[in-house]
Amino acid sequence: MSIYIYIIYIYIYIYIYIYILEQVSQFTYLGCSITCQIFNDVEFKLAKFLQLIGTIKRTIFRKVRTETILKIYNTLVLPTFLYGSENWTLAALQRRRIEAAEMKLLRPLAGYTLYDHKTNDYKRRELRITGILDKRDEYRRNWLSHLQRMPQN
Questions:
Q1: Phi first, then psi: what are they for 48, rounded to 5°?
Q2: Which pTM value belongs to this model?
Q3: 9-27 exposure pattern, b = at least 16 Cβ within 10 A, e = fewer
Q4: CA nearest to 86, candidates 17, 7, 149, 141
Q5: Region 56-85: what's the mean pLDDT?
Q6: Residue 30: per-residue pLDDT
Q7: Which value, to the nearest 10 degrees, does the dihedral of the CA atoms of residues 33, 132, 98, 71 take?
Q8: How far apart are CA 78 and CA 52, in angstroms?
Q9: What would the DSSP string read from start to end of 69-85?
Q10: Which of 9-18, 84-93, 105-114 is most confident?
Q11: What is the DSSP letter of 131?
Q12: Interhelix angle 120-127/92-110, nearest 10 degrees
């Protein structure tokens, strides 16, 4: 197998035998968006997260118990969103958007409206769940401890 790589200005040409690989600016691999832009993966995951929350609210929200919706949220929605989040560097705007997206499901699930002026932590304590950003921080700590256990070579 012969692979040749030529770099001309900003274009990279990769040849495998006589075929040139197509150059793209973005692609999805294992649910993560690989791109040259910094925030694209977080925004891609956030859009999918909001889609899943909307599906839950449209289909089963008033038909099943709160505990069942929380189990679906914790076993399906959160892992889908947090996959690959160990490497994210979040700006303050992104942290606020993620928390707002989380509250789109949790606020009505706890029985509150936006005008009830209950804090997000109060709603989470009432539902007995951990916040999505706290889970992300836990994922990062676990990843760091995994890296520290790895051999240095």
A1: -65, -40
A2: 0.72
A3: eeeeeeeeeeeeeeeeeee
A4: 141
A5: 89
A6: 63
A7: 90
A8: 10
A9: HHHHIIIIIHHHHHTTG
A10: 105-114
A11: -
A12: 50
Task: Give helix 132-149 / helix 92-110 axis angle, nearest 10°.
Answer: 130
pLDDT at position 100:
94
Alpha carbon distances (Å) from 97 to 39, 50, 72, 121 = 13, 11, 21, 16
Q: What is the pLDDT of residue 148?
A: 87
- Write phi, then psi, for 22 (nearest 5 degrees): -70, 135
CA distance 50 to 77: 9
Question: Residue 110 in contact with residue 123, Cβ under 8 Å?
Answer: yes
Q: Is the pLDDT of residue 4 over 70?
A: no
Are the C-beta atoms of 101 and 50 separated by less than 8 Å? yes
Give the tens place of pLDDT for each residue, 123-147: 999 999 999 999 999 999 998 898 8
H-type helices in the chain, by residue range? 40-59, 66-72, 78-82, 92-110, 120-127, 132-149
φ, ψ of residue 6 to 5 degrees: the values are -120, 130
Q: What are the Cα distances from residue 1, in Å, to 4, 16, 112, 147?
A: 10, 7, 62, 33
